[in-house]
Amino acid sequence: MKRDTGKNKEITDKWRLQTKLVRGGTYRSEIGETSESMFMTSGYAYDCAEDAAARFEGEQDGYTYSRLRNPTCAMFEDKMAMIEGAEAARSTSTGMAAMTQAMLSIVKAGDHVVSSKTLFGSCRVFIETILANFGVTSTLVDGADKEAWKNAFQKNTTAVFLESPANPTLDVVDIEFVCNIAHENGALVVVDNVFATPLLQKPIQMGADIVIYSSTKHIDGQGRCLGGCILTSEEILEEKVLPLIRHTGPNLSPFNAWVMLKGMETMDLRIDKMCSNAEKVAHRLRELDCFSSVNYPGFSDFKQRDLVEKQMSAGGSLVTVFVPEGREQAFKFLNALEVTDISNNIGDAKSLMTHPASTTHKSVEESARLEMGITDSMLRLSVGLEHADDLIEDFARAAKIAGL
């Protein structure tokens, strides 16, 4: 098995985004296949016992066991690192596996974590509850409050976690500012970049130490399988992340890695269309004048517009709306939809809508949900690749049925 000419860094550094998405990270066997090969194997054979010992010692290149690394997963990891602009990457079975492995690799009992308050439900439970079970304390702050960030650090703060834009409120955090404050206090910063994707935002360029993804979302982009990815420096990967992954085994399957590789070939086309659809849909939803609020980072009057323009190249594919009368009316609206599916996933080619308070953030205490702004009136929309006018007509009809 050999790497093709695309692996020559002098060549790949000159490539533009679309070329990297199609050709980056490719390995080829002696057969010369054009599509990446799927190596569905748990282990690898050696010519002699000395070779096996040398590989485990790190003295010989090659694979030893697919819990440690697999060629198909390696292709996905290399392509992700190339797109992100990171030195190294390691894939995981899910996005939450990426989040937990990243955090657990840089904290220990007695440490303190600072995080933004508005997080995906499972991320917030992990920061507040699961880490606490292992002796790690946390302070959660309003992500837009710079003074709160400054005041949250303690002598034992070792890690910072944030989402930007946040799930599901779309709140944006000044990543560069937080990274600077964290590094002044000796802490590492982990950024969940799922909503922005590596195509719209580059946290590592803003100082982030680790970036994580649920590749289940826009990276696969077609709702087919689960996956995650951790991107960081070679030093952090080797010294902190890999020792944990090697001995806990949260690995991505080769089949799922292959699906992700296929998804990445069209990622730029999909995300560009999703963003343009989302902007059009968001404006038309506002024009319906029946929702209490329509929120989209691409709006010129978005509350953090200057920061969006500083950090992101587009507004993304997520929109939130608030119905006037709460949960019952929100459910009526969802149930009346004919085109958009009721689903708690995002980043799919199909448009999906969910009621966060009863789905993605159900595990979060009601008081915490309300603190984040997640009321029973909120609906989160992930805009897909359908014709925007079909989506708009669907929402207008559902709004009438729901009595908006």
Describe the 3D structure:
By secondary structure, the protein is α/β, with parallel strands linked by helices. It has helices at 9-12, 17-23, 49-57, 71-84, 95-104, 121-133, 146-152, 175-184, 197-200, 234-248, 254-264, 267-288, 305-311, 327-336, 366-372, 388-401; strands at 2-3, 27-28, 88-92, 112-116, 137-141, 157-163, 188-192, 210-214, 228-232, 293-295, 318-322, 341-342, 352-354, 378-382. The strands form three sheets. Strands 3-9-8-7-6-4-5 form a seven-stranded mixed beta sheet, sandwiched between helices. Helix 4 (71-84) runs parallel beside helix 11. The longest helix has 22 residues, at 267-288. Mean pLDDT is 95; it is low at 1-6.
Give me some keywords for this one.
single chain; 404 residues; alpha/beta; seven-stranded mixed beta sheet; 16 helices; 41% helix; 15% strand; globular; disordered N terminus
